Amino acid sequence: MALDDQIIDDLAEVVDEAARNSEPIVMLTAEHPEMTLEDAYTIQRRSIARRIERGESLVGMKMGLTSKAKMDQMGVHNPIYGHLTDSMMLADGASIEHAAYCHPRVEPEIAFVMADDISGEVGPREALAAVEGICPALEIIDSRYKDFEFTLIDVVADNASSTGFVLGPTVAPPEWVELGNLGMVMSINGEVKATGSSAAILEHPARSLAALITMLDERGEGLHKGQVVLAGGATKAIHVHPGDRIGLEVDSLKMVELKIS
Questions:
Q1: In angstroms, what CA-CA distances link 202 with 64, 205, 235, 241?
Q2: Could you tell me the pLDDT band of residue 37, with boundaries at 50, 70 and 90?
Q3: DSSP letter, residue 115
Q4: Which of 235, 252, 251 is nearest to 188 (CA)?
Q5: pTM of the model
Q6: Distance separating alpha carbons of residues 195 and 259, to the nearest angstrom
Q7: How confident is the model over 227-242, as pLDDT tens digits?
Q8: Which domains does the chain have, with CATH numbers?
């Protein structure tokens, strides 16, 4: 790690408080340009550890930068990931307050629910064999950085911008759906705002899941039975506003909804 351990702790507190209070902060790399991606993941873990100390529990993980074009644009070769806690999980049709966020946006996702523990360097087929079910999901992302200015390293430290998520009511076994090419339509107030396919998620969502498991293994970690994994956005994130009602329809699966007040 390029950063001193105490600095890592201090930055984890900064990130945690920013997320807890929805207060924008200056990007961390402005003061610490020597920060590495490894540092950022350590900051992320320690900020999540602070949440767990307050009584939250880890319920899963999320993937980001799962588009090949986006990775090329950012100059990286792998997706990034963040952690999901129980306080981030919202019921289908739930309402959130726009004022409680800094820059709220919503992404259409495919979510996995794990049937078994799994770790190691795995491929898509092996990863999918550990899945109990698949459902549509909406992820709320919200960078905590002032003026929406940040680097990739800052994003990782900020838990990959993950803030909340909603799972759809239908959890289907993987063999029931054409996971590699599910049509996805996201609408706001009944008007279609984004259309895409699950194929946009690292060319197949199972590849995203396998990549996550392999990256976690680099730190001696893995996924556990019952955990949720958001595979990554199938389209660009959409900005939301008070009064918006967001719906996501996915082939073979029921709609998932979220309201903004």
A1: 10, 6, 12, 29
A2: very high
A3: S
A4: 235
A5: 0.94
A6: 19
A7: 999 999 988 889 999 9
A8: 58-260 (3.90.850.10)
